[in-house]
Amino acid sequence: MINYSASDDFVDKLRAQADIVSIVSEYVPLNKKGRNYWGCCPFHQEKTPSFSVAPDKGFFYCFGCQAGGDAFRFLMRVENIGFGDAVKLLAQKLNIPVPEKERTEAEKLREREREEILRANTLARDFFHAYLIKSPLGAAALSYLVERGLTVELIKDLKLGFAPEAWNMLSTALQKRGVISDTLVKAGLSVPRSQEGVYDRFRNRIMFPIEDIRERVIGFGGRVMDASQPKYLNSPETLLFNKRTVLYNIPRAYRAIKEAGHAVVVEGYMDAIALASNGVPNVVASLGTAFTPEQSRLLLHYAPEIVFAYDSDAAGQNATMRALSIVRSSGAVVKVASFPDGKDPDEFVRKHGAEAVRNRITSATGLLDFQMSRVLGEADYSDLAGKVSVINRAVPYLAMSGSAVEVDAHIARLAEKLGIDETSIRSELKRERGQKEAGRPTIVHVRRSADTKEVVAEEYVLRQTLEQPDRFADIEKSLTPELFQSGPRRNLAEAIWQCYASGKVPRAENLVQTLEESAVKLLSRLMLDGESGPDVSQALDDCIRIMLLARLNEQYEAHRMRADEMLRKGDLQYVQELTNAQRILTKISDLTKSQG
To answer: Of 531, 513, 404, 448, which Cα lies nearest the Cα of 56?
Structure first.
């Protein structure tokens, strides 16, 4: 296995010789419009082309799903491969021999261990599968799966298996195939005994092989057939398996996720199999455990929308709420599909059929709709205490919504349901959002510039640091990366500033491999945006001023709020906070005057 870094001379050579239009054209029909080429995005379903390629800058960007990057990023996404494999593939397309890079002994050892674990997992999968299909010991498990609606053909296709109840049947069988006990333990297939030897981790369980995107067996999930606990038992952490980053069925589902424009997430393996075999191919399972930010990022690699279809019992609904809180911060469009009578998706599809479950997925409700319905559905608001409880639970969800129309609709619905005036709910919402309540001591507020204005300013500055390096010295006198709002803009700023600090002029194509995914999308969009305009100096000065004013406004507001709080508590230190606020207010005034 060859490892590369973004600074490798060979990578730079490939990047210089690669014609991104030719590379992308192998996968996407492109038409030239102006300087750029356009086509339908290969990463989500669309009818009107929003996918653009800039040959002069070597970047692509989709204005629909925000996918972007250079030629390497494109190959990584479209082929579902890592950076090293993208390097080799691009070299192959350009007919350039790939140089070998000498690996350290530690790297060689780690690679050998990975290969040994992969072999052990593959042998274990075949062992479990044979016991399910061919052995009398697996007859009960096979009958159980067939009764749950799985055909023998599907069971064979998925390579489902059965772990016998004996303590060491797997360990003994694999040792006879040359797998040493140390590898069995490292693979999570066996557990060391207190004295010597090992015993099987999985016993008397239906076995689900867990594969990575390349369809390699990296771990297992075992499910009991009765009410014993734990219901699910997954492989422990290994060199190959990290349950936070893995989703069951992803190698079969990712293409369907791209085509549908959304992923469907269920809790259990059986739920995923049931939906996938009944017309919902874009389904994955979170391994019977809590949904993680890493799993969210994996899905957003393929589609911008995630539909949760967890069990409709109390535990499933609680799991849904936890998952929603995780995905909300990722920027995904989130929906929830519900199933009646406490059923899970597997039970529902067996009772009502494929069309009914597809309708449930299609009619999934939005994030705030689900949250508000759950708040109202779980509460007794027949008395005042109940109404207050509902408002206290609902307001934080309303405050997190970015849609004023959606919030207004839910406030009206809450007011009608609770029999109270909308004004009361809006007052609580204002308090939740940090605005001052009526009756507090009045201190002057400085109105912040619109967020969109700050965003435009920050993006313009970032673009100039890349396109006009001779202006960076002047920019650096006024700005630091910390003055950019947190997230992709700050991540990109930090990379640019660091590059200049090391004495190098940053190039967008070299920054791609060092940035977080959200910052790569931003960089790609900046590369494909229009011209900077005629008067760059004046525009740059204006943008720097907007950024400085925004940060000063934040500082002023922080001091003002602290002074407000101290005054209410009778703390005389509020005078010092007011002094600090006034000092910043003077700076704001001076900076505003200089604009004129």
So the answer is: 531
